[in-house]
Design goal:
Elements: E1 5-10, H1 20-27, E2 34-36, H2 41-47, E3 52-54, H3 58-66, E4 68-73, H4 84-90, E5 94-98, E6 114-115, H5 118-130, H6 132-146, H7 148-151, H8 154-165
Parallel strand pairs: 1-2, 1-4, 2-3, 4-5, 5-6
């Protein structure tokens, strides 16, 4: 539960079609957050230069995540899913999903940490920071459902066999 960083976001530009940077900027104006990723100077100004830590190697990002309590996940396009949720879960980071992230594809219908505005994000962060039981149980459930079954390859093997059988 006790980690070095309360809140970290990995943010990369996804173009003008679905502006993740704009969405992120609307969610975090008054929230203390470390933002990592390939972001232009113009985007850094939108997000707050003091919040932007720059781009880091994958292994370094995993190290940072392992020391982080929560992260915000915004899809690259509405109703899609990225691999960032699994990176969060495997590092025992509580994922907070933007409303456009397709949590239904992940089987997370009713997941309590889904946000569409700044107030909801602040509420989620308050819950996470003040409730060790919630953090511990959420981490256990997410890890046991989304990481553990795939560690030894058994589950993946079953999925591949099922696809091959048709």
């Amino acid at each position: 539960f006790y980690k070095q960083f309360d809140f970290t976001v990995i943010a990369n530009d996804s173009g003008d079609r679905y502006n993740r940077i704009k969405i992120l900027s609307e969610l975090i104006p008054d929230i203390d957050v470390n933002i990592y990723g390939r972001i232009s100077d113009e985007q850094k100004a939108i997000l707050g230069k003091n919040k932007c830590r720059g781009e880091v190697e994958y292994s370094e990002m995993q190290h940072i995540l392992s020391k982080t309590l929560a992260t915000l996940l915004i899809p690259i396009e509405k109703n899609l899913v990225t691999s960032k949720y699994i990176e969060a879960i495997q590092n025992r980071v509580i994922p907070i999903f933007h409303k456009d992230y397709n949590v239904n594809l992940l089987g997370l219908t009713g997941y309590p940490l889904l946000v569409s505005n700044n107030e909801q994000l602040k509420g989620c962060l308050k819950t996470i920071k003040s409730n060790p039981y919630f953090v511990t149980t959420t981490n256990k459930v997410l890890y046991s459902n989304y990481v553990e079954p795939y560690i030894d390859g058994t589950k993946l093997n079953e999925i591949i066999k099922e696809i091959v059988r048709g």
